[in-house]
Design a protein that fits this description.
The chain is an alpha/beta fold. The chain has two domains: about 50 residues, no CATH class; about 270 residues, TIM Barrel (Alpha-Beta Barrel), CATH 3.20.20. It is about 35% helix and about 20% strand. The strands form two sheets. A ten-stranded mixed β-sheet has the order 1-2-3-4-7-8-9-10-11-12, with helices on one face. It has a two-stranded antiparallel sheet with strand order 5-6. Strand 10, helix 9 and strand 11 form a beta-alpha-beta unit. The structure holds iron/sulfur cluster.
Length: about 350
């Protein structure tokens, strides 16, 4: 929902200013799905707003629910016909998290990522980014799903720091108490390692969580897996992390997708330990080991028991590490699987 456009339409219709607050409350807190849904508005105003302003920046094209009911993936069609995917996850009984996209496609080209295979089409607007959260709030209301959606991770399609301004505006809107009202600590932004973005983020959003898609602590291998490593190699990344935690005193999550025979052996774990120790106080750096989700790429998943072994190596070196629970694999809604298929 674009509130400036709604405000302009209200002014054009000669409506009093408190109508905007009513719409804002209905849309963001009560998850109304259309102007027609907002009963406190006079019927003629509902009609003129419906005719003049789009309530949402996209329309639902397709929705899938995982077999265990803990993950849902929606394909949303934007006004120019392009599509993005967004995911709703229920990691525990009362918690809901949405994984949102910031771009249509992605230019970074990580070799294990389905989105990376698409290339970049365009950045999403701030409204298109936040409407994904609004979409899930509306969905939860329609489906009478218990609990509240107030965790957001920017880990869908796209590199958030490649469209920093759009993402920054969307973050301000998510944190705005008058609209989404989501706490900064409930929001995470994940980057493939664009150092200038990390530096700006530390100044602009010191309370928002940062995640780094690391995947290897060896420059040659990381350049192969995450090609942006060529521009921002590990030494620069490590310094950016040190500066980030020194400035924010916030924990950073290091994402590490385990790829069989590529980055999952003992020497890879050792390099990772060295990288973490060089990048800040170990209590502020947490490694998330991710079991790879098969995509249309040549990579293979590390079996779970090997992932546990890799984790033990990190733990015994004093590094905080978890093996991440992966929801939504069966609907291609898990990490690295988002693309307009399925
Ligand atoms: S993992 Fe993230 S940064 Fe890499 S290609 Fe996929 S969407 Fe882009």
């Amino acid at each position: 929902m674009n509130l400036s456009r709604v405000a302009a339409a209200l002014a054009g219709a000669g409506a009093p200013s408190y109508r905007l607050d009513q719409i804002r409350r209905a849309a963001f807190s009560e998850a109304a799905s259309s102007f027609e849904d907002i009963a406190v508005l006079p019927a003629d105003l509902r009609k003129s707003l419906s005719a003049g302003v789009a309530f949402m920046s996209h329309a639902l094209e397709r929705l899938r629910v995982s077999d265990d009911g803990r993950a849902r993936k929606a394909l949303l069609k934007l006004s120019d016909g392009k599509v993005v995917e967004t995911v709703l996850l229920r990691p525990s009984v009362s918690r809901w998290t949405t994984c949102i996209s910031s771009q249509v496609g992605c230019a970074i080209g990580c070799t294990f990522c389905a989105t990376g295979l698409m290339g970049l089409s365009r950045n999403l607007t701030p409204e298109e980014i936040t409407d994904q959260v609004l979409f899930w709030r509306q969905y939860m209301r329609r489906e009478s799903l218990p609990g509240r959606l107030d965790n957001v991770v920017y880990m869908g399609m796209g590199e958030p720091f490649a469209c920093y301004d759009e993402v920054a505006e969307s973050l301000r809107s998510l944190m705005d108490q008058k609209s989404f009202g989501i706490g900064a600590r409930h929001i995470s932004v994940s980057t493939s390692g664009l150092v200038p973005g990390i530096e700006r983020f530390a100044d602009d959003f010191p309370q928002v969580n940062l995640a780094l898609s690391l995947h290897s602590a060896d420059d040659a291998l990381r350049t192969k897996l995450v090609p942006v490593n060529k521009a921002y190699p590990l030494a620069r990344l490590s310094k950016a992390l040190r500066d980030f935690v020194a400035k924010t005193n916030r924990k950073v999550f290091l994402e590490y997708v385990l790829l069989r025979g590529e980055n999952d052996c003992a020497s890879d774990a050792e390099k990772l330990v060295d990288f973490v120790k060089a990048s800040g106080p170990v209590e502020l750096l947490h490694v998330n080991l991710i079991i790879f989700n098969q995509t249309d790429t040549p990579h293979q998943a590390t079996p779970e028991e090997n992932a546990r072994q890799f984790q033990s190596r990190l733990l015994s070196a004093g590094i905080h590490a978890t093996v991440r629970q992966n929801l939504g694999r069966d609907i291609q809604g898990a990490c690295g699987q988002l693309i307009a298929h399925g």
